Amino acid sequence: MAVLSKRIGLLDTENAFKIGPKIRSLEDQGKKVIKCNLGEPDFPLPDFIKEEVKRQLDLDNTHYCDPQGILPLREAVARHFAKTRRIETDPRRIVVFPGAKPPIGMSQEAYCNPGDEVIYPSPGFPIYESFTRYVEAKPVPVHLKEEAGFTLSGEDIARAISPRTKIIILNFPSNPTGGVASREQLADIAKIIQERCPPDVRVYSDEIYEHILFDGSQHESIASVPGMEKRTIVVSGASKSYSWTGGRIGWALLPTIEEAEVFKNLCINYFSCVPAYNQEGARVALESPLAPDTIRRMVGAFQERRDVIVEGLSKIPGIRCRKPSGAFYLFPNVSGVCERLGVFDAYKGLPADVKKITTPSTLLQMFLLFEYQVATMDRKSFGRIGTENLHYLRISIATDLDSLKQAVTRIGEAAEDVKGFARFVDKGMNLF
Ligand SMILES: Cc1ncc(COP(=O)(O)O)c(C=O)c1O
Fold first, then answer.
1. Which pLDDT tens digit goes with each residue over 250-261?
2. Is there a contact between 53 and 277 (Cβ–Cβ < 8 Å)?
3. Average of per-residue pLDDT across 290-312
4. Is the CB of 205 under 6 A from ligand 1?
5. In Å, how far from its chain's centre is CA 127?
6. What are phi and psi of 393, to 5 degrees?
7. Which of 28, 29, 207, 302 falls between 20 and 30 A from 121, CA-CA?
8. Gyration radius from the chain CA atoms
């Protein structure tokens, strides 16, 4: 008898967390790693949020609370949805979670039976694919095309829909591409869903990067398209907008009060409730008049870094890098660098068991980390199915500009270092 269940073996992971020990091992050797792997803003938690959390602790607001989320936060989220998405909602349809991540798996648990299909973007947040497998549903990736600006059309979604489709996941602005869908594109996707899917198919709209938009654009949600609110789970939270990944506050608007009750019960089963003092902090984050300027300053810094680093990367022969419209990631195509360094040939020559767990972009990622101390993420960290011939890296720009410029210099040097790459592969270590 095996110790662990068969099902637990189906669960994948988020490599952004897994790469941490590798980085630490290099740092322990005294090396300075430039961390372009991180999915969190590098700014401190704004003071007006900190002050509220401290005040709540002093008020001894440290006990169990409403497992659905405290009413003042759910009311603030409802007002936020009205203001930003033209959705007038009842706080009974809102549920609070420890971050925007838990409702991904909970949705799969709540809506999917084994064999049902989940459509999701690839490249996309790895938990979409991981949890689909875990609940024994079938992952159906829709590949976002670089030449289409990493967005989706209704036609792309139409090709993926089948009678077994149960959830369609969208994520704009996107991790890892920074792609953003326009209002017209969302309307096009919504039209296909309304025409082709029965009303019990759910759209899961992951809008955690809703505030991180460049060039003055405004966030658009598919839930604002007429007829979509009653099919859509809208998810967001405090992690990215307020640089508060450690606060673990996320929320979802469910299509009905009954569905919100199901999620509330999942919360009760998993963690009872989310710390009330942080929920009060999130309420202030949503409502404070200081918030818009704070967000504007952070987004301005990301935009400046985006412009400088896209330009720098684009000068490196073999790298093609689009300018993202949102989030804080660049997703350059590195096929040319792989070609020049001999990564494809090296990959072909690896033993079968190593080949199974690595990819060309993983070899490049590891070469950059171990030989040039730049931490990035490989393509397979954002979905595995059908990505064998796709060669990209995700570069987070949530690091100060000077370090990012240095990272570009190091990547440029690495891209020329054919002999160094051959030596790295010959060592046979750190290849995945
Ligand atoms: C697309 C996407 N969804 C959800 C999350 C999870 O956010 P949180 O830290 O609030 O759980 C992330 C975090 O990186 C993300 O990129």
1. 999 999 999 999
2. yes
3. 98
4. no
5. 9
6. -130, 150
7. 302
8. 22
